[in-house]
Design a protein that fits this description.
The chain is built from two helices and no strands. It is an all-alpha fold. The longest helix has 43 residues, at 3-45. The mean pLDDT is 78.
Length: 60
Amino acid sequence: MNGRSMGLLAGIALGFAAYFGGFTAFLLVGSLGAVGWGVGAWLEREGPAHVRDLFDRERR
C-alpha cells in the first residue's frame, strides 16, 4: 500500500470520527494514528532486535 492510499484511509477514518464522535473523537483518532505511525516506522527501521541489543549492552 503506497502513501496516497494510506493518506486516503487516514482521512476517511478522521472524517468518520469527526462526523459521528465530534471534535474529541477526531483528536483521539488523529493522535492514536500518529502514535501507531511512529511505532510502525520504528519497527520497520530498527525493530525489536535493537531493544535487545540495548539490554545486552547494559548487562555487560
